[in-house]
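Tutorial sheet, problem 5. The two components below are modelled jointly, 869 residues in total.
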Amino acid sequence: MSKSFPEEVLEHVFSFITSDSDRNAVSLVCKSWYEIERWCRKRVFVGNCYAVSPRILTRRFPEVRSVEIKGKPHFADFNLVPEGWGGCVYPWISAMAGAYPWLEEIRLKRMVVSDEALELISTSFCNFKVFVLSSCEGFSTDGLASIAANCRKLRELDLRESEVDDLSGHWLSHFPDTWTSLVSLNIACLGSEVSFSALERLVARSPNLRTLRLNRAVSLEKLHNLLCRAPQLVEFGTGAYSSELRPDVFSNLAGGFSGCKQLKGLSGFWDVVPAYLPAIYLTCSGLTSLNLSYATIQSPDLVKLVSQCRNLQRLWVLDYIEDFGLDALAASCKDLQELRVFPSDPYVVDPNVSLTERGLVAVSEGCPKLQSVLYFCRQMSNAALVAIARNRPNLVCFRLCIIEPRAPDYLTLEPLDAGFGAIVEHCKELRRLSLSGLLTDRVFEYIGTRGRKLEMLSIAFAGDSDLGLHHVLSGCESLRKLEIRDCPFGDKALLANAAKLETMRSLWMSSCSVSFGACKLLGQKLPRLNVEVIDERGSPDSRPESCPVEKLYIYRTVAGPRVDMPPFVWTIDEDAALRTLLSLRKIEVSLDIHERM
Amino acid sequence: FMEQDYEGMATEVSSYSNEAELELGLGLSIGGGGGGLLKAKGSPWGEYGKIMTAKDFPSGFCGTKRAADYGGDGPPDVGYSASPGVSQVVGWPPLRTYRMNSLANQAKVLNDEEEKRVGGNDECNGALKENMDNESNKNDTIKDNGQLGFVKVNIDGMPIGRKVDLNAHACYETLARTLEEMFCRPSTTINSNRSGGQEKGKATQTSKLLDGSSEFVLTYEDREGDWMLVGDVPWGMFLSTVRRLRIMKTSEANGLAPSFRERNDRHKSKPI
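Model answer (structure tokens):
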């Protein structure tokens, strides 16, 4: 049957199948489909760089044009993963340099990228077009200079929130004058000033430029120079949005913005001087995305701005917006899909602004399309969570961070189990959930049984016992990523649900109560998992086996144990685990004898 | 073995009640001892099978200090102001480094009335005002080094460094205490006198790292690349010039600027 279609026909059919999971499914149908599929797969996503090796990738898929790879676990964003942990991209670049000379796109997230890697990229891929470095680190502006100098076909360079060793802004000048293919440039994370004239010339010779995100060092007075040269811009990020109040600066700026008739997204806005905000008013009605999360302006100014953005779909903002501002948002922005509210002063216990659970409830009531929420606040109640859940059953991502760990319902002083329970019960499409506040094991029972589509769960300072973790691991059919910190979860639940770990991408546990002995058992029992203990106190063998490990990262892999582990990461080698097994068996035997007597 | 465990667990789960402490059998029925191995209290197995939780360890032992600090025996009192404060928990609230630096630097400039600061105990108030006065200095620094808030910290003897958020502190004392906690373990000798968390929160106690009584001293590299002892200059000035920190063995720190303690001693012996 499988020979009834010539390969070319199947290949043509497969070319319409772009989603990774569909492609994976296709490859499992039969051997010939596997072969045809692997030869024509153009795009690969590696969710965990240690789950598979570069060699396995390049051998299976010889014709890849686009690669996306993720490295460190998510909690690395919050300094929970020590420096030097891993996630180096160089071995991947090195393998792909040989195997994929026609590679066009590289997208990396939380990886360590050296200048050597950048240089290798710049000289290995003559068709290199798209380079996205999201939350990466390890490289300097020298490495960027190689990219600029050598990648003649580059269209997209996006340094999203990466940590760059910023030696100077000179690298931008390495883009040759003949290079005119720029479509997207994001340098917002860079500290030092780039040559403005080089930037100006670059923008002027890039007719396809759609996205330009500047860094803080670009001053307000100069923005209009760029905007006038790029009226086709769709996404724009300002630099520092402040200047002395001068009418000529204002009118230039307003003119620049009003010339960009296709503008849909704005960001940047560091150091905002409110008097300059009206310069963007004319763009507001077209905006679908607005990132004001660095804009330290007060609620009235925010309200004036936001209430003009009738088509807004995504808003990132500081808690200066306050409940009052969120009311206005709910009234004006009926297309809102994503809301993120960040804390302006996260380290004080007492609130510095009047932002409470009421703001979020208002938005959940007023915005029927709301599906993604990230909300930092200082008080929450079960009643509010229940209301949110009932208002917005279409929520897909709900991340709530009540700033004080273990904060109870501020009205009843009870745990927030019922509130989060309502969220998972009503929001049947929920894929991502982050918990906070005072929570007992009961909330995990709700999550385990009702969170059927939940793929990613983040837990901190919650639960009473292993039962909590057991509920999650024995339920949550779709769970892929679980990250836990500072919870009283230990060995029992992990060992009882060990098989579950092979169905997930990864599990992170830090400051919990998982013993080294249990880690060894897991490592021995499940060879397709890498069980890695991160402990900066020295070898876990130097402590009793019952002593909890500091941090634990378990992930499924076909590549075997890592070869690049730093000194503070221990993997479980088979011999050690076997010895544990034998010593436990001796105890079993002696117990039997004891009981019989 | 896992299927058997699961069955054993399931029956016990169904009989779980809120009040009773769940006695889950560890069920390590290795090699197929039927039905899982149930713990008998008081048996030799019980010793090995006990799952240690943070509560079993006095705070300071075996690194689960953070969880122990927060107790976990029930909801904290509302308005529990004696808590260590959110800033001393690593990675909480969950905000990216870049965002924290950015916010901290801007918020202080615009909120003139905002006097509240992290770790703002009395000893910091003098430094606090200085901190605010030095805002303009700091903003200039930010343009050069957008990542000011978090700086790297290394300690002699440990190859792996950490990062500390300078913006979460208003004076040397809290910074030093945070660093002591970060790097202190029972096995090292920095805090050999420390016992079970007694010293936590004591505002009046000088950090050993600053007063010269420990075998380590706290030093920093400034913008010119010179290594200086921490504590010599006003806090605000320190913030505007520090590049990174190093906890150095006292024996190696000779030749650096006069120590904090030496200066204090000199003050003390000054005749009235």
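Marking note: The radius of gyration of chain B is 24 Å. Full credit if you identified this.
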